[in-house]
Specification:
Elements: H1 19-22, H2 25-29, H3 33-44, E1 54-57, H4 63-71, E2 77-80, H5 84-95, E3 104-107, E4 122-125, H6 134-145, E5 153-157, E6 167-177, E7 180-192, E8 195-206, E9 209-221, H7 225-233, E10 238-241, E11 247-251
Parallel strand pairs: 1-2, 1-4, 2-3, 4-5
Antiparallel strand pairs: 5-11, 6-7, 7-8, 8-9, 10-11
């Protein structure tokens, strides 16, 4: 079972439980990045940067923020990333591109605390929706859809599995760099409703020797796509799956 495991918490966490994830985040993203970029390209075609900034909710390490800044010269970005470790990765990318500094704002608050722009030219919501329950998701859709122009769109994904079920432990070899290997072991199990608990161990290996092992747990929602469509509909928006992928467009 292929998992992207790109989970960023838009609700914030004082303990910054994504500190362990941050060290390997971009390495982990590499294998799924081509598919993600294809989805982002679908969004670029319907962005309205003349209407307002592009929201990147749960921006992670800033991969998608950077992609839009690079591909849409007239766009401004409004990135929300409450994790200090993840936010440091975004700022590290921006440090190398001073020409982007006037086109992007990186907010440290959670979604419901950040001062959202009155109008949005589009939105990216990747690796994020699972951190919200049904009521919160409906509020997120309403807040975003209400700021989009007619025909404006947001890109989101639904992380597998599509419905809660037991996922037995499996290993991902992330990369070999020099003499060391980096990998992750993940497993999950249902905990009621649409919720699952994920346990992920990040390993730094020298041959068979474990040099570093960090284990984190996340509670994550895996809503049925029908429920997502209903929640979006209440925000006067519709959703469309991009082919057979895990990516969807929400359009006002």
């Amino acid at each position: 079972m292929k998992m992207t495991l790109m989970y960023v918490d838009p609700m914030g966490d004082a303990t910054d439980r994504y500190g362990a994830t941050a060290g390997l985040y971009d390495l982990m993203a590499a294998s799924s990045r081509p598919a993600q970029l294809t989805a982002v390209e679908s969004l670029l075609a319907v962005l309205r940067p003349n209407v307002g900034p592009i929201l990147d909710l749960g921006a992670g390490s800033g991969l998608n923020t950077a992609a839009v800044l690079d591909r849409v010269p007239e766009a401004h970005l409004f990135a929300i990333e409450p994790s200090p470790s993840m936010r440091a990765l975004i700022l590290d990318k921006l440090a190398a591109r001073p020409d982007w500094h006037q086109r992007v704002t990186v907010r440290p608050e959670d979604f419901f605390s950040a001062p959202l722009p009155e109008r949005l030219g589009g939105a990216i919501i990747l690796g994020v929706l699972g951190h919200f329950d049904a009521g919160e998701r409906a509020a997120v859709f309403a807040e975003i859809a209400g700021r989009l122009p007619d025909g404006g769109a947001a890109l989101f994904d639904l992380q597998p599995p599509e419905r809660p079920r037991r996922v037995e432990p499996f290993e991902l070899t992330i990369a070999h760099i020099g003499d060391l290997a980096y990998s992750a072991i993940a497993e999950s199990w249902p905990i009621g409703g649409d919720r699952m608990r994920w346990r992920i161990s990040y390993l730094t290996l020298e041959g068979e020797r474990v040099l570093v092992e960090d284990t984190v747990e996340h509670e994550y929602h895996h809503p049925d796509p029908t429920a997502i469509a209903d929640e979006a509909g209440r925000a006067d928006a519709r959703v469309q799956r991009l082919g057979e992928s895990t990516f969807w467009l929400l359009t006002r």
